[in-house]
Amino acid sequence: MYSANPMGSVGERLLSYIDTSMQRDNNYQIAVRMLENFDSLKDMSISQIADMCFVSKASISRFCRFLGYESFKEMRDALGIDYPISYDYSQRFFRNLTADPRAAFLAYAKEAQQNIAETISEENLAELPKIAYAIHDCRRVAFFSHHFLWDTGRYLQNKLFSMGKVMELYLDRSSQLACAQSLQPEDMAIICSVGGSYPIRHVDVCNSIRDSKCSILAITQNPSNPYWNQAAFVMRCGVSNANDTGKYGALAAIDLVVQQYLLQYGGDAFPSAFDPAR
Description:
56% of the residues lie in helices and 8% in strands. It is α/β, with parallel strands linked by helices and 278 residues long. It has 2 domains: 10-79, Arc Repressor Mutant, subunit A (Orthogonal Bundle); 105-265, 3-Layer(aba) Sandwich (Rossmann fold). Strands 2-1-3-4-5 form a 5-stranded parallel beta sheet, with helices on both faces.
């Protein structure tokens, strides 16, 4: 059974690199050419890909390792794994979308709104001051997730940084594992996993987090996962991930953390808000 080192598909890795690269060097050009010819990659040899990208086979091998794969073969094996959009949307949803797009959109919005409303629960609100305090006072804070939820981590990272707190965030599994292995009891790990599958898919990362004895904040719709028993905080981010609507609850939970942290530690950014003359 294939066990991918990087989070997500080869396509996601290539897109993430293109989106975040600061240099348009050889690696950037290789990524662009691979994306432009993505449907053909799984049937191409390393020599053919090298010719397509106008580089050497050694350059392709190095680029594969740069993406987080141990070899070209491992990357090509990963290309054989299908990630159809039907994983995100049910056949029933597509039938409804085809029959009546407006009704399907409204039903989708209702489910997303329900997840957001469930996230803003009394239980979550009661925990927020303690969560913000834990983030503020820990030595290091690191975010662990994959796919879209990794992007919510980027959002949290930027917001915390604007309020003086640096949060670590790594895209590939090997870097997440190295970060987890370096955590200490005075640190904090935030694990965002709507379905609660992250501890199952990335056992070594989560075991390292557990062994570090650091504080854990879990953001999930599945609080019954036994791994969360060791979490200091569990924020439930809605009740349904049907048709990929769970992401709205996850983002709502992240926003609650941001706003609570702002309330407790970001007041210096709004001096006029406390000026009686205004």
